[in-house]
Design goal:
With 394 residues, the chain is α/β, with parallel strands linked by helices. It has 2 domains: 224 residues, 3-Layer(aba) Sandwich (Aspartate Aminotransferase, domain 2); 126 residues, Aspartate Aminotransferase, domain 1 (Alpha-Beta Complex). It is built from 11 helices and 13 strands. A hairpin with a 2-residue loop joins strand 6 and strand 7. The radius of gyration is 23 Å and the shape is globular. Bound molecules: pyridoxal-5'-phosphate. The site of pyridoxal-5'-phosphate has 15 residues, from helix 4 and helix 5.
């Protein structure tokens, strides 16, 4: 009896010790996800091997149909990556050297490289410090006779202010290309991310909310002629076979990727719901912790934020990041160097200090684990570890 009475507290002590020693919260756990869909994915991959059609074909067409239906888009066109989707979108709009494209510098590299690759010039607008997206109040002043398009990014999975952007674009006769690489399934006042502008661009990089088993991308369009141009440009500008009216690129979606993506698309909404639930739980846990040093993400109530990233703003970001990594918690900075401060874009002539909110966000943001399979225990550990850090440095 005495043994039992002693062993119970001992058990709790040891299990807490074990938990603290070995608690590991990766930034993203794709193995946990794969464990839930292994049989479906392997059957789909096996089917492609049995048919031996690896480039385009029925599997890709089926995925394009299903993606168009999911996104509520008239056309969905697969391609080799999200980066290519952005490049092809600007090619289809005939963006040329000397043209200007309005966008932000607080994004992944590919949004800007698509512009500069065509000899056009990115015109950077500062971001809104709440949602990290383009500050729509600053767009109109940046429009010149050379402006051709606006390229908003729906960063972290929350839509930019599309009503304002579309209204400005309409008034100035500009095209809108949405970088929806992080926003598949996100909604803006009832509309789906990637279907509001002329072209929407998506990425299936493995870590995206809908991730393939390698690279992949997709473009959406409402206009039939524009969709046809995108279809031709992704196959070397070839139509019909071996006849070329325009110079396109080789950017096809693999049948293997399409097969995997078809399986995962069926689970996407459930995974997204998991992320949304986890984000709400973080909000509660952070509110309970009462940390003045941490600002949880701002969520527009009339939008569906799909939490590709759960990104906090905080003081002492780099120290906190090191502390979290040491405690077995994955976290990452998206993005530490804004694009106007990248060495390869020095020729654009931007200087430090020109985009104050962008530069401030790059110093303060930190993305925490948010994937659907994350447990409440893991989330508590993340918030407790952050609270512990600020207690020691206060
Ligand atoms: C991932 C991403 C891209 C590029 O997609 P890839 O498929 O990796 O080429 C472009 N823009 C944003 C905002 C992204 O997050």
């Amino acid at each position: 009896m005495r043994h039992l009475a002693l062993s119970i507290p001992l058990y709790f002590l040891l299990s807490t010790f074990y938990f603290l020693l070995f608690m590991n919260v990766p930034l993203l756990d794709l193995i946990a996800q794969h464990n839930t869909i292994r049989d479906e994915v392997m059957a789909a991959v096996n089917g492609v091997f049995e048919r031996q059609q690896f480039i385009m074909g029925a599997e890709v067409e089926a995925f394009e149909r299903e993606a168009a239906e999911y996104l509520n888009a008239r056309h969905a066109i697969g391609c080799a990556s999200g980066s290519d989707a952005l490049l092809l979108a600007l090619m289809a709009l005939d963006i040329k050297p000397g043209d200007e494209v309005i966008t932000t510098a607080y994004t992944f590299f590919a949004t800007t490289s698509a512009i500069t690759r065509l000899g056009a010039k990115p015109i950077y607008i500062d971001i809104d410090p709440d949602d990290f997206n383009i500050d729509t109040r600053l767009i109109e002043a940046a429009i010149t006779p050379r402006t051709r398009a606006i390229m908003p990014i729906h960063l972290y999975g929350q839509c930019a202010g599309m009503d304002e952007i579309l209204e400005i674009a309409r008034r100035h006769n500009l095209a809108v290309v949405e970088d929806a690489a992080q926003a598949i399934g996100a909604q803006y006042r009832g509309r789906r991310a990637g279907t509001m502008g002329e072209i929407g661009c998506f990425s299936f990089f493995p870590s995206k909310n809908l991730g393939g088993a390698g690279d992949g991308g997709l473009m959406t369009a409402e206009d039939d002629a524009l969709a046809e141009r995108l279809r031709i440009l992704r196959v070397h500008g070839m139509e019909p076979k071996y006849y070329h009216q325009v110079v396109g690129i080789n950017s096809r979606l693999d049948a293997l990727q399409a097969a995997v993506l078809r399986v995962k698309l069926r689970h996407l909404d459930q995974w997204t719901e998991g992320r949304i639930v986890n984000a709400a739980r973080y909000q509660t846990l952070f509110a309970e912790a009462g940390l003045a040093e941490v600002k949880p993400p701002f969520v527009h109530t009339d939008c569906r934020h799909i939490f590709h990233q759960y990104t906090i703003r905080c003081s002492r970001r780099d120290e906190l990041r090191a502390h979290l990594l040491k405690s077995g918690i994955g976290c990452e900075v998206y993005y530490p160097v804004p694009l106007h401060m990248q060495e390869c874009f020095e020729f654009l002539g931007y200087r430090k200090g020109e985009l104050p909110e962008t530069e401030k966000a790059a110093l303060e943001c930190l993305s925490l684990p948010i994937y659907a399979e994350l447990t409440e225990q893991q989330q508590r550990y993340v918030v407790d570890t952050i609270a512990g850090f600020f207690r020691t440095v206060r």
